[in-house]
Design a protein that fits this description.
The structure is a single chain. This protein is of the alpha/beta class. The chain has a single domain, classed as NAD(P)-binding Rossmann-like Domain (Rossmann fold). The chain contains nine helices and seven strands, in the order βαβαβαβαβαβααβαα. The N and C termini lie far apart (43 Å).
């Protein structure tokens, strides 16, 4: 599916991240993969890069440093020539912007979450667009989490995801004439080190099991990774400005399946249900 394509993937912090699963599936689909990282976590990313089916180079990118975007583009053009696609898998919010602190989060924390998790997608697209031009087309994909609703404890990260969704549509509008597609993959909850830091995550996973028609394996990021590979491939050449939900169908259901709630095997604590659906 991705034979002969060169894909840049951000956000590979460890081999347990969704981004690492995307990199592995992209390589299995025939792509050449380049990763990015920065600062102290770069050595961790480099270890994760060696754990891929094929070791991948790691380039420097701290999205909090504007100059890094231009430097990344110039290095890609100089060392690799061009790209066919890129994946934005970067999201971060400080502790005081999560955990039910929506109202008392500082302005600085709120803006930093939006800048890191959403505005950086626009900056990445702007920087990398020239690297797609030698190939005449390209695909940009970002990882999303359903921003249609307010989730417990997600707070300013939820706002950041809503901004990401809007930014993706404007990018699709602006980059379409250059044959660059822009889409999001809205993933269900996956047990990653980052997710483990979100208060209420275990309850969210528990609730997901009662509402997703296909059920949902929180330990398996491959469905998300394969969907992203589809969006990176020529098989999605007519798709842009889209949000592809890879969540077992959770987003389309109005309520949990009662039979799952009532069985002993899938019992759910009343307080957890109350917390999650209000």
């Amino acid at each position: 599916m991705l034979e002969g394509k060169r894909i840049l993937i951000t956000g590979v912090a460890t081999r347990h991240s969704i981004a690492h699963a995307i990199a592995a599936e992209a390589q299995r689909a025939g792509a050449e993969v380049i990763l990015t990282s920065f600062g102290r976590i770069r050595s961790i990313t480099e270890r994760a890069a060696r754990a891929l089916p094929e070791p991948a180079p790691v380039l420097e990118l701290d999205v909090g440093v504007p100059e890094h975007f231009d430097a990344l583009r110039e290095r890609i053009l100089a060392e690799h020539g061009s790209l066919d696609g890129a994946v934005h898998a970067i999201a971060w919010a400080s502790e005081d912007a999560l955990s039910g602190h929506f109202l008392d989060a500082s302005r600085e924390s709120a803006l930093e979450s939006i800048a890191t998790s959403a505005v950086s997608f626009k900056e990445l697209a702007e920087a990398l667009a020239p690297t797609f031009e030698p190939n005449g087309r390209g695909s940009l994909v970002a990882l999303d989490f359903d921003a249609d609703r307010a989730w417990p404890s997600y707070d300013w990260m939820g706002v950041s995801k809503a901004a990401l969704e809007s930014i993706s549509r404007y990018l699709a509008r602006c980059l379409g004439e250059r044959q660059i597609r822009v889409n999001l993959a809205a993933a269900g909850p996956i047990a990653t080190p980052t997710a483990g830091g979100i208060p209420g995550f275990p309850q969210l996973v528990e609730f997901w099991n009662y509402q997703a028609p296909l059920r949902w394996d929180v330990h398996d990021p491959r469905p998300v990774a394969r969907a992203v590979c589809f969006l990176l491939s020529d098989w999605s050449e007519g798709i842009t400005g889209e949000i592809l939900h890879v969540d077992g169908g959770f987003h389309a259901m109005a309520a949990p399946f009662r039979d799952r709630l009532e069985t002993k095997e899938h019992s759910i604590r009343e307080e957890a249900l109350t917390e999650l659906i209000g």
